[in-house]
């Protein structure tokens, strides 16, 4: 195999393409010694910057990340794919009432009935949001955010994780989520 063949097999960024900068924060523990000789440990975040490219900007990258060419799924098939994904999580989902939420103490997702939503996209966007909360349970990802009040930064962080996670899942399942103004209410104000 020639050098050029090896380059094309692993992929090469197309000439003239521009990448996006991402920053990765890696937590590390450091030990500091004060003037009195006392050692204290604290956690800091080491920041690393990378330039990344979309897979569509790379020639010869045969990793199977691009969707196969052909006809996209119909809306009905996309919703069937969402139902299959939701079933595959194994989450306990109860329907009824007028509020959607995840109850960590009972480890269940509570959803209003499908008919209560103004669109199927609204239903799926909401249930995927709640499933992201479900994924943080101590028996799964064990996300530890204090959630005593909606006004805390920890609560806002968990809500942001759920919003971004649901957006990624909707994109992957071919669902256009509804934009809702009330989601901004989760963000804390002040310091």
Report on this model:
There is one protein chain. The protein is an alpha+beta fold and 191 residues long. The chain has two domains: 3-59, no CATH class; 75-186, Zincin-like. It is built from four helices and seven strands. It has helices at 3-10, 75-89, 120-135, 153-173; strands at residues 12-13, 20-33, 39-52, 58-59, 92-95, 101-103, 108-111. The strands form three sheets. Strands 5-7-6 form a three-stranded mixed beta sheet. Strand 2 and strand 3 form a beta hairpin. Helix 2 (75-89) runs parallel beside helix 3 (120-135) and helix 3 (120-135) crosses helix 4. The longest helix has 21 residues, at 153-173. The N and C termini lie far apart (59 Å).
Q: Could you give a short description of this structure?
A:
The chain is of the alpha+beta class. The protein is 31% helix and 23% strand.
Instruction: Using the coordinates shown, work out and report the CATH topology of the largest domain.
Output: Zincin-like
Separation of the first and last Cα atoms:
59 Å
Count of discrete alpha- or pi-helical segments spanning 4 or more residues: 4
Coarse structural class: alpha+beta
Strand arrangement in the largest pleated sheet? 5-7-6
Q: Which percent bin holds the helix content?
A: 25-40%
The total strand number stands at 7
Order of helices and strands: HEEEEHEEEHH
């Amino acid at each position: 195999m020639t050098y050029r063949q090896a380059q094309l097999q692993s992929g090469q960024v197309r000439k003239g393409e521009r990448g996006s900068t991402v920053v990765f924060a890696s937590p590390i523990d450091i030990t500091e010694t004060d003037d009195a000789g006392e050692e204290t440990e604290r956690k800091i975040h080491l920041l690393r910057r990378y330039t990344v490219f979309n897979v569509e900007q790379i020639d010869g990258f045969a990793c199977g990340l691009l969707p196969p060419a052909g006809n996209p799924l119909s809306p009905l098939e996309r919703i069937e794919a969402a139902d299959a994904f939701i079933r595959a999580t194994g989450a306990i989902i109860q329907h009824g009432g007028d509020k959607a939420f995840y109850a960590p103490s009972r480890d269940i997702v509570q959803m209003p009935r499908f008919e209560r939503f103004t669109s199927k996209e609204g239903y799926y966007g909401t249930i995927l949001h709640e499933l992201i909360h479900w994924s943080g349970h101590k028996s799964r990802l064990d996300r530890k955010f204090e959630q005593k009040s909606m006004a805390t930064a920890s609560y806002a962080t968990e809500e942001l994780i759920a919003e971004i996670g649901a957006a990624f899942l909707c994109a992957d399942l071919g669902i256009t989520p509804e934009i809702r103004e009330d989601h901004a209410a989760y963000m804390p104000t002040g310091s």
